[in-house]
Design brief:
Elements (H helix, E strand, L loop, with lengths): L1 E2 L14 H10 L4 E7 L17 H14 L5 E9 L18 E5 L2 E2 L2 E2 L14 H17 L5 E2 L17 H13 L3 E5 L14 H9 L4 E4 L12 H10 L4 E6 L2 E6 L1
Parallel strand pairs: 1-2, 2-3, 3-4, 4-7, 7-8, 8-9
Antiparallel strand pairs: 5-6, 10-11
Helix pairs in contact: 3-4, 4-5
């Protein structure tokens, strides 16, 4: 059992100590548990969204200390969730830092518009939904082709508030799948969508089926921001993966990928 998408208080919108998240993961029987808190972004939009650049080393040192403290109970992995397109506030040298196990690449912004902030929910009622999804998926392809990331985060995030696309995006999802396979990038099944207005996993079953059919590597993330969310939704995710023929989950250590049978 693997959960690679979990946050800490440093991002400004999560609660609880890292130890509380780990204890929850142990209680639920997880074997690999990764922290991937939000890497710094531009100062003007940082408060309450990501850590400050000066806190990056603090975060790394804390997770490394927890690796040692819990090594006999659970394997702790160190990651970052990094926004793409990239912000200069996150030092690019970290992408080659041997202390870091993996990077999740996520898109939260189309140009300067936030895809998932509560303030943006009203925009979905007036904007062209299919243009939003087209722009979003084009960014995801570039994210994968950058070869900076091990994992793609919440691949269909624009549906968060319950505004799905009205067009069939199967062709562009197939292109995403092809890019992921070519560049050896995993895509997560993220249970946070179950806790949002959309009330379904990221990605949707239709997208998940295309990804699995095209041999994309899959991993799991609860995207927890509270200790009791750690590992939540795993059983539902596993059932969906098996429904479409996926029998393995990916995880990463020192930027190298491994697989675990489910």
């Amino acid at each position: 059992m693997i959960d690679l998408h979990n946050h800490t208080k440093l991002c400004g919108h999560a609660e609880g100590s890292p130890e509380e998240y780990i204890e929850e993961a142990i209680k639920k029987g997880f074997k690999y548990f990764g922290f991937s808190d939000h890497a710094p972004i531009a100062e003007a939009i940082r408060p309450g969204i990501t850590m400050h650049p000066d806190e990056t080393e603090q975060y790394i040192e804390k997770i490394i200390s927890l690796k040692a403290a819990y090594k006999d109970k659970i394997e702790i992995l160190l990651g970052f969730e990094v926004d793409y397109p990239l912000f200069d506030d996150f030092n690019a040298e970290y992408f080659t830092d041997k202390r870091i196990d993996y990077f999740i690449g996520s898109c939260h912004f189309i140009d300067d518009w936030s895809v998932d902030s509560p303030e943006s929910e009203k925009d979905y009622k007036r904007l062209d939904l299919n243009r939003i999804y087209t722009s979003y998926y084009e960014i995801i392809i570039r994210l994968i082709e950058s070869r900076l990331f091990n994992i793609v985060g919440h691949i269909d995030l624009p549906k968060k508030f319950g505004y799905p696309s009205t067009e069939d995006f199967s062709d562009i999802i197939k292109k995403i799948a092809e890019a992921a396979v070519k560049n050896d990038v995993a895509i997560e099944i993220n249970s946070a969508g179950l806790r949002k207005p959309v009330h379904e996993m990221y990605p949707s079953e239709k997208i998940l089926e295309i990804l699995i059919k095209n041999k994309v590597k899959i991993t799991f993330g609860s995207d927890s921001h509270y200790p009791d969310e750690a590992g939540s939704g795993y059983m539902e995710a596993e059932a969906l993966l098996k429904k479409y023929g996926c029998r393995k989950l990916s995880y990463f250590k020192k930027r190298t990928g491994y697989e675990l049978s489910i």
